[in-house]
Amino acid sequence: MTQNDTFKPCDLVIYGALGDLSKRKLLISLYRLEKHNLLESDTRIIGVDRLDETSDSFIEIAYKSLQAFLNNAIDEEIWQRFKTRLSYLKIDLTQAEQYKQLNAVVDAEKRVMVNYFAVAPFLFKNICQGLQSCGVLTPESRMVMEKPIGHDLKSSKEINDVVADVFNENQVYRIDHYLGKETVLNLLALRFANSLFYTSWKHETIDSIQITVGEDIGIEGRWDYFDKTGQLRDMLQNHLLQILTFVTMEPPANLSAEAIHMEKIKLLKALRPITYLNVEEKTVRGQYTAGYIQGKPVPGYLEEEGANTESTTESFVAIRVDIDNWRWSGVPIYMRTGKRMPNKRTEIVVNFRNLPHNIFRDSFQNLPANKLIIHLQPNEGVDVMMLNKIPGINGNIKLQQTKLDLSFSETFKKNRIFGGYEKLILEALRGNPTLFLSREEIEQAWTWVDSIQDAWKHNLMPPKPYPAGSWGPVASVALLARDGRAWEE
Ligand code: BG6
Predict the structure, then answer these.
(1) Counting CB atoms within 10 angstroms of each CB, which of 278, 311, 348, 484 has the fewest?
(2) In terms of pTM, does the model score above 0.90?
(3) Ligand 1, from 69, 235, 347: best to mutate by most atoms within 8 Å of Cβ?
(4) 187 and 134 co-located in one domain
């Protein structure tokens, strides 16, 4: 699609407009879309919340949010344009009759109503019923929601059922913000637009794959949410499994939402279950203790503000995943994710197999295998580690491992790399469901993750301590060492 494509303008209604998600992410992303002329000129943004604000005071709140979270100066000209889109409605979301106010604002003739549920899931039922009773929805209306979509399969089904009472599946846009990240999307290009990778993406040529999503931050005052959730549900059930599906799914027939969803679901169904029988050998749970991040002391998980000092919630998880299908048989996928790691780093490492024979033995005893490293954040880019001859005419051929380095910021200097939210909000406004999650996909991911969570409970496996500022418990090194491998450092 090109920037010149025209789309129907929208009435974007944000429920929970005064909440954290709206202020930190949604309003900021919408302003950025405005800046780059990516919003239809007639699109309106209607903030809905229960506090006693007016459209004027909501505009002030939006301005303050931009000052706080934009990371660069507000362009006053853009702001003047942006603020004319904003208005506010005070609605107590639990009171069905109050939704009638929407009828006076939303214009289904001219615009598509996009309902962004930026509130806790327990309010979803109220919002759905409120919208239904005031009769403001049309078959064109959409709803957008994001994680947590439940904390297990059962609760996720409950949320999806509530939404399905009012919206058809094709009206529902479930966000995983990792799917809006440029480098995650680039996986499609890398795999399916390059014959080099397309032909070598299989167990015959690939030895193993690693996916690391490390964050240096702790739980950032979110104790209540995080302690009930843990790293497995907060990060692995969604972001890491999404990366995994993009790396390992079969080639979709085309780029349609159906084709991609179908391949992702097939892949998720092929994940070998982890149960109480193999959980100890396949997973490591960790919890950070006090330590140092970039030289600064930080408290341990149990010393965080508001902490329950008995908590056994994991802030780190490492897993060996096996995929039982033709392409990946025998290729382990190691995934790890944790809070309070030494730095923020998201990367995928594809380790190719060793060559069967070494004719350079005189100068290089063990030829290291090729490696493809995809950096998702920070410093988006792709590296290929390969061997080259060191120039020189004296003696044997000498080899050196070198890096073919494609840095996005260097190569695409003129192109701005947008954040995940900007991309996904834009796609929701344009009605393109490709980068959103289907119900079946989420439920399949929960089925696999629930089995791990149950196994941990069954085996009473407490998390292993690791000092903040390290890459997790020693046991996570052992997870790979047992297979004769090591994490990419
Ligand atoms: C969120 C998690 O989904 O993703 C947070 O709830 C986490 O715990 C965040 O910090 C990480 O996102 P990103 O884009 O900063 O890698």
Answers:
(1) 484
(2) yes
(3) 235
(4) no
